């Protein structure tokens, strides 16, 4: 079986200078052409952590004009049980980062479902934080979230987008990472999953039958094993001394099996869960890995994904507050909102960039672009 450990880490991100492409309101009648085979713009929304506003995020996405939006669900790194410490690491930060979408926040998930753009969603571990067992007698929080999302929740299935020549295959929902299956009873009742092998088979089978001319994107809440075990690796444990690989074994197994036994073109694996900002102020995580076979593994968990723009009283200057729990002051002007943009050209990933969009009333602008990958570099 092919090992995911044979990978080449992409160079450190190239941080470009702040750019201002547009300071006017976008034209809602503008539609991007998707006639070219397997050419598209995809916006990835990483771990939401309750930082989602349908009105403001819709304005930002209207400026970016993606053909498809991918949501990686919601996770809280500090709330995963640590067998090393026998406690919840990063407990001091739990109050401000305690949800994937929002601890089975049905209203927030409904707001995401109301986004008027093509989208695909995978639920994270905190989207099943309260519901441990399936109940046939009443609708639990998980069931209500699934009903909100309908076919757009892609767990263990495939969604085809013929006009884009793309297919999105979903991994295991509710993942908390590591060797143990989180919410085993729930997965067993809803999906018939008993163990990692069974989960890997479900992911593998979901990809079978993909149209031959389609590029495949795997969407999961957490990334696969085999991408490194250092603190700052894309799925590395940053909350324990010495690190460790916190990836999902079933996802790695499914990817390897697909590459060994099929001709399915897996160009991109998108996930979240592992925050860009490391625990205890240890720096930043590597958010992209390029495999030896050119498969790209992308972590979209930019947390927090919203910065509050605050105008200094009596001046024209604007600062940002990197505090997702802060409230707007009388001088507040708006927000900056993070997305990871993926540009696909003729069936190949051409560019990936962490992109920050300012939203000030009806005006939107691209304020920052940090290039993570550029084909040819």
Automatic annotation (TrEMBL):
* InterPro entries (alphabetical): Calcineurin-like_PHP (IPR004843), DevT-like (IPR027629), Metallo-depent_PP-like (IPR029052)
Please list the residue ranges annotated as the Calcineurin-like phosphoesterase domain. Answer: 41-276
A GO molecular function annotation here is: hydrolase activity
Where would one find coiled-coil regions in this protein?
Answer: none
What superkingdom heads the lineage? Eukaryota
Query: What is the protein name for this chain?
Result: Calcineurin-like phosphoesterase domain-containing protein
What is the organism lineage in this UniProt record?
Answer: Eukaryota, Viridiplantae, Streptophyta, Embryophyta, Tracheophyta
């Amino acid at each position: 079986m092919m090992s995911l450990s044979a990978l080449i880490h992409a160079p450190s991100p190239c941080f470009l200078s702040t750019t201002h492409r547009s300071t006017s309101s976008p034209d809602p009648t503008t539609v991007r052409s998707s006639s070219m085979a397997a050419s598209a713009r995809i916006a990835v929304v990483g771990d939401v952590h309750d930082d989602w506003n349908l009105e403001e995020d819709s304005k930002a996405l209207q400026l970016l004009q993606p053909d498809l939006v991918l949501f990686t669900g919601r996770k809280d790194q500090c709330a995963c049980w640590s067998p090393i410490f026998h406690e919840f690491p990063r407990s001091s930060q739990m109050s401000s980062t305690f949800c994937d979408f929002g601890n089975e926040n049905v209203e927030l998930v409904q707001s995401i479902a109301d986004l008027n753009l093509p989208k695909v969603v995978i639920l994270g571990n905190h989207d099943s934080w309260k519901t441990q067992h399936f109940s046939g007698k009443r609708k639990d929080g998980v069931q209500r979230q699934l009903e909100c999302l309908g076919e757009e929740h892609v767990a263990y299935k495939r969604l085809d987008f013929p006009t884009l020549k793309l297919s999105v295959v979903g991994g295991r929902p509710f993942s908390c990472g590591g060797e143990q299956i989180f919410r085993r009873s729930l997965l067993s009742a809803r999906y018939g999953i008993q163990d990692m092998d069974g989960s890997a088979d479900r992911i593998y089978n979901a990809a079978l039958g993909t149209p031959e001319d389609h590029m495949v994107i795997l969407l999961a809440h957490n990334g696969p094993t085999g991408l490194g075990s250092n603190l700052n690796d894309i799925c590395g444990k940053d909350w324990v001394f010495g690190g460790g690989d916190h990836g999902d074994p079933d996802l790695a197994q499914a990817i390897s099996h697909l590459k060994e036994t099929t001709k399915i073109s897996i160009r991109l694996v998108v996930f979240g869960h592992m925050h860009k900002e490391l625990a205890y102020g240890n720096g930043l995580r590597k958010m992209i890995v390029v495999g030896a076979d050119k498969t790209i593994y992308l972590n979209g968990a930019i947390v927090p994904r919203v910065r509050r723009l605050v105008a200094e009283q009596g001046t024209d200057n604007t600062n940002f507050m990197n505090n997702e729990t802060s409230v707007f002051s009388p001088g507040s002007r708006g927000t900056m909102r993070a997305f990871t943009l993926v540009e696909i050209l003729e069936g190949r990933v051409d560019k990936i960039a962490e992109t920050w969009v300012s939203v000030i009333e009806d005006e939107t602008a691209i304020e920052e672009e940090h290039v993570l990958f550029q084909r040819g570099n």
